[in-house]
Recover the amino acids of this structure.
């Protein structure tokens, strides 16, 4: 007799951020207004983070999905829309890192930023298919903080002490999020943990059907992938 598949009394939501060791995965149980984050950890393979049992209802990931060539220059409509919301100073880092990592194909050191980012972006391009987008959504930590800040750009860049404190203060209002922010994972920076926490909050918004799209109507690439950023 086949095993009976019982429905969980809650939804699982997750966030995934590239890290030197693979992928930093944060997750939480969501039931109504109750939101219970778990301790984060690093997985080597993207599939281990997004295709697991029990399955996630939503995964927010900080990597471009779809329109890979235009993503190199940040010229996708979602990239342009994100910059318009955030201002030019803060979000540029993502696309600069992407373009630099993909352009410097000879940089293979897994410990260098260009080395591990290039590997992570390639992995996403290989793994993500249209059907996986039912669950996995491209998000941007700075748009998460933009939402937390009342749809206003923040005053300081994320990679400064002032910017870190500003974002942590906003995120600390989310119940249980300190479990992620105060975690200790080898090779994971405090900013990486902060971004994972922010994306997990956005995953909660997506699962609750409260998220917004950038742009409001998505584009599609030649592989059938939606090109959008959720916030």
């Amino acid at each position: 007799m086949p095993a009976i598949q019982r429905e969980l009394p809650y939804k699982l939501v997750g966030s995934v951020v590239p890290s030197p060791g693979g992928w930093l995965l944060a997750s939480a149980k969501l039931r109504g207004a109750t939101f219970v984050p778990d301790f984060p950890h690093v997985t080597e393979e993207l599939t281990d983070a997004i295709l697991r049992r029990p399955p996630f209802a939503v995964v927010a990931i900080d990597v471009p999905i779809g329109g890979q060539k235009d993503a190199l220059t940040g010229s996708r409509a979602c990239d342009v829309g994100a910059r318009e919301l955030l201002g030019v100073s803060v979000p540029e880092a993502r696309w600069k890192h992407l373009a630099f990592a993909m352009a410097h194909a000879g940089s293979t050191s897994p410990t260098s930023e260009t080395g591990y980012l290039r590997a992570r972006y390639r992995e996403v391009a290989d793994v993500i298919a249209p059907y996986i987008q039912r669950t996995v959504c491209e998000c941007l930590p700075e748009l998460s903080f933009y939402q937390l800040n009342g749809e206003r750009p923040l005053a300081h860049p994320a990679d400064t002490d002032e910017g870190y404190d500003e974002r942590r203060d906003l995120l600390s209002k989310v119940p249980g999020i300190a479990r992620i922010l105060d975690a200790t994972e080898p090779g994971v920076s405090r900013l990486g943990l902060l971004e994972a926490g922010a994306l997990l909050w956005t995953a909660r918004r997506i699962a609750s059907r409260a998220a917004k799209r950038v742009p409001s109507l998505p584009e599609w690439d030649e592989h059938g992938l939606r090109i959008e950023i959720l916030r």
In short: The first helix runs from residue 46 to 50. Residues 99-111 have pLDDT under 50 and may be disordered. Strands lie at 11-19, 22-31, 34-37, 41-43, 58-61, 136-138, 213-220, 226-230. The chain has nine helices and eight strands.
